[in-house]
Amino acid sequence: MTKYSKKLQKLHDTAPQPETAVLVALLRQGQSDQKAKEYLEELAFLTETLGAKSVYTFTQRMERPDVKTFVGSGKLEEIKNYVTHFEVNMVVFDDDLSPSQMRNLENELKVKVYDRSLLILDIFLNRAQSAQAKTQVELARFQYLLPRLTNMWTHLERQRGGTGTRGGAGEKEIETDKRDIRSKITLLKAKLEEIEKQGATQRKGRKGVVRVTLVGYTNVGKSTLMNLITKSNILAENKLFATVDSTVRKVVLNNIPFLLSDTVGFIRKLPTHLIESFKSTLDEIREAELLVHVVDISHPNFEDHITVVNQTLDEIGAGEKPMILVFNKVDLVKKMPTEVERQNMSDFEFEEANFLDLEKLSEAYAKKTGIEPVFMAAHDGTNVELFREVLIKEVKKQHMKMYPHYLEDEVIDMSQFKDME
Ligand SMILES: Nc1nc2c(ncn2[C@@H]2O[C@H](COP(=O)(O)OP(=O)(O)OP(=O)(O)O)[C@@H](O)[C@H]2O)c(=O)[nH]1
Ligand SMILES: [Mg+2]
């Protein structure tokens, strides 16, 4: 980790993990209660990933957030009462807050206020491993904090055992720190540029081999699939953003070599500036010949997830790449009952069970994308053979584009990819 002045270091460190959190979300017009519930579950999962337990949820039906305090004054009063009464440590908002909203909310609530960006940035910061990912996250976090510095100061005052009242840090000190942060940002940018230059050279060295990149919503099983195919040991766990660094491995299937990369997962409402800061990590996606879009088919919102991923891919200019769709976690799905089973079931039972018609789904997606989706379970290898087959077929297509005379010069010098192993 980079060395900072003591003050800056404190500012940089994520606060000691608070134990309890309340969540706050606005419900937009036309948003069903079910959708809202699922979105809040995701927010609770994110909060949990940061180490806090969400104890209560506040929602308000409102088309646009209040300019000053995000929620209306009545709702804010309710939140405040709850937070004070139950001594909650933090309040998490499902959207981004403007610097003044954050300041006002902290003034009112007197506890740490997180918005979606800060929550995701802190998770990334905890998880980033490589110099590149760390530098990217540090930079994004400082840039995000700069206009919010006064608020962070109150956080720090509290951390130091203060009472939570404002005014601990003088304007002068804040100005000095802003200057410090600005120069830190300049340094980090330069460092990142240097790392990116090396990365670009490294990537250039990989030219001449098909590159396949795993993409998908967070927690769908990308790393699990990567481990299965490459026999690697990348951390895969039931947490959002287990992977922040990308990993590249060489794979040879049926004599055809290719590179497989695992990448950071996407999430809905991923702030654009965060995507920006991950641009170079996302080069793994942009420079791939083939994408494997992994979907957690057991998730009630999997269709939304597909949309979010496709939109994000469009945003980074990778929307048009050939893609294999993998419907993962098929073991957790309730498959359509057989005819006999159906006959022994009431219509109500049938509706309630929420069966998934895999065949219909398969047809619909094959029609849309031209490639039949693969249903599999990466964690126990169900259908991995089918996935391999489809993968080989699609890699071969890309390989043939690179080496039209492939059959004649079948042997490829793999020594150039030694660093991948
Ligand atoms: N039941 C079931 N669980 C799975 C399957 N594949 C992965 N998992 C689990 O899903 C969780 C997430 O898996 P990861 O491989 O870390 O997912 P990821 O897409 O890399 O997630 P991020 O890196 O956080 O974006 C882990 O607990 C896995 O064990 C599957 O086919 N079936
Ligand atoms: Mg992962």
UniProtKB/TrEMBL annotation:
Keywords: Cytoplasm, GTP-binding, Magnesium, Metal-binding, Nucleotide-binding. Mg(2+) binds at residues 223, 243. Residues 210-399 form the Hflx-type G domain. One of its GO terms (molecular function) is ribosome binding. It comes from the Bacteria. It is found in: Cytoplasm. GO terms for cellular component: cytoplasm. Signal peptide: none annotated. Gene3D superfamilies: 6.10.250.2860, GTPase HflX, N-terminal domain, P-loop containing nucleotide triphosphate hydrolases. SUPFAM superfamilies: P-loop containing nucleoside triphosphate hydrolases. GTP binds at residues 216-223, 241-245, 262-265, 328-331. Its cofactor is Mg(2+). Monomer. Associates with the 50S ribosomal subunit. Belongs to the TRAFAC class OBG-HflX-like GTPase superfamily. HflX GTPase family. GTPase that associates with the 50S ribosomal subunit and may have a role during protein synthesis or ribosome biogenesis. PANTHER family: GTP-BINDING PROTEIN 6-RELATED, GTP-BINDING PROTEIN HFLX. This is GTPase HflX. It comes from Rhodonellum psychrophilum GCM71 = DSM 17998.
